[in-house]
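ugh ok so i messed up the first submission bc i forgot one of the chains. this is the corrected input, ALL of the components this time, i swear. 648 residues overall. if the numbers dont match what u have on ur side tell me asap before i send this to the collaborators (the ones from the other lab, u know who)
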Amino acid sequence: MRFIFKTDYDQDIRLFKHGGQTFWYAVLGLALLAAPWLLEEYFLSQLSFILIYGIVGLGLMLLSGYTGLISLGHAAFMAVGAYTEAVLAARGWPFPVSLVFAATLAASVGVIVGLPALRVKGIYLAIATMAFGFIVEEVLARWEPVTGGNTGLQVGQLAMFGWKADSERDFYYVALVIAVLVTLGVLNLLRSPTGRAFVAIRDSEVSARSMGINLARYKTTSFALSAAITGIAGALYAHKVRILTPDQFTILQSIEYLMMVVVGGIGSIHGAFFGAAFLIVLPQAISLVKDYLPPGIGQATGLQPTIFGLVLVAIILFEPYGIYGRWLKIRTFFQLFPLYRRGLFKRQKAFMKSERLR
Amino acid sequence: MQVLQVIISGVSQGLIYGLIALGFVLIYKATETVNFAQGELMMLGAFLGLTVVTFGLPYWVSLPIAFAGMWLVGILLERAVLRPILGQPAFTVVMVTIGLGFIARGLVTMIPGWGTDTHTLNAPFRGEVVRAGELVIGMEHIVVIVATIVLSTALFAFFRFTRVGVAMQAASQNQLAAYYMGIPVRRLNSLIWGISAGVAALAGVLLAPITFVHVNMGFIGLKAFPAAVIGGFGSLPGALVGGVIIGVVESLAGVYLPEGFKDIAAYVLVLIVLVVKPTGIFGETASKKV
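and heres the new structure output, hopefully the right one now
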């Protein structure tokens, strides 16, 4: 067990709390930098996908995990980012400029969706964002001159100032840099007054308001930032898959993103990346074991949704903080060995109160 | 005359949404959580009804059997999955029911005889039409309309006039206080899940002659959400009114607006309602003192 003896106020907000953390994150950073030499091209490509979905996870985590607002329409923000990037890249805009533009556009769409969020909460917000997601999906399919409709939109390679990311390795590095920057950005945000305000709103709107937090302003900010981050991920995604169709951005994808956040561990930065890894690895694991199952089950089209659903329900029932929560427990077990007790992380008993009365 | 015909078909389509929305509203009214697997429960109910009919039993017998079967499923689900997370925030329940929906849709594809095919359920009244002057309405739709109105009246009376119904509303407003008053919150939750799953089964079997029976028939539930919201989520008559509004707007949009507007009319409408009057038409509002 490590006790941190604080002698300075800066230690409260330091990114790395102690030397051990610095060491392990440095190891992780080196491993990620060396990945192109260690992994085959296929696995590297999957790693890029994990980074992209990790960024989506960060965006959604900011909104759902830290501000406590549900969104069932995040695929729509992703779509805004992806299509903006595709259109601008086709006109020859350099990637950094079009990326900023995609993020800004996604953020402004986020503000528009956030407007109903100021008046509604909980389940109503979920339905509002879901409705928004359906509308965007329909627009993508119908606005053929720009989006190419259901036939899809081709996207060129990621290019800036005469340089092209024409190999898997180049793209991976771009994705890695952006993922690291976004992660640092979110971490910094969360230790700033804005981030603290988000968490306060999540834990109790009434007490947040009595502390002088302007709910409307911070909820809109949260929506905008979350949409912007998701838009960035969308821009990367566009260059990764190279062809965009409306069926890549349906409600099922929005649900998958939420699933990613919940399975990874709601309310933690690690959780976003754990969830992304889960989302990429599980389908491949399923296709590996599929042939060993009885044909009635193994060949059924519903196998993957069933397993996704089972994992989701099991996580919520038995491990509310997801993969990250499990990791914390394992770590604490070894740190406290042999003093770990089962009740250490017990969920507090909660009683629901109506949201209708306010 | 054409407008009238369009409106009538809109109303009958809208009452279908209303019928499904009844299930959401029941659970919301009693536990203040939303069941995203309602459409899937309906789909399971329809498959149960289909199986009963394939065994050679008449259509009308399949209704009570599907109702009872899904009642059991609802109670089992509540006991196994929902009870452990009783009292957790709405987000948790939303995710659990989404997970349940995935499981239900996946498992159906693995059951021999159900699978991914589209099945027809032969009802005795299928294909008959009623004419009034130049207006035409299918018998299937009339059955749905009558059933929806009867069901919602019965359920409305249940919440309004029975002790159990009032106790359910109390439990949804403040669980802890309800426990203190001696209300068996858990048993009531079990009961309402049973009723709601049963209602979903009735909806499924009644809709089967119109929409056919297949794995993805539950997706119509996504249109029932806007219906429930427009009516005010906790209100049973509201669900019907909301459903009718959506049905009519949808069919009018299908005729008079360019292609594509029909599919999103419901969602545009619900966004407008949420911005203008978030509690819906019949929503209850009360203020809380801090």
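quick check: The first helix of chain A runs from residue 19 to 38. that seems consistent at least. Chain A has a mean pLDDT of 85.
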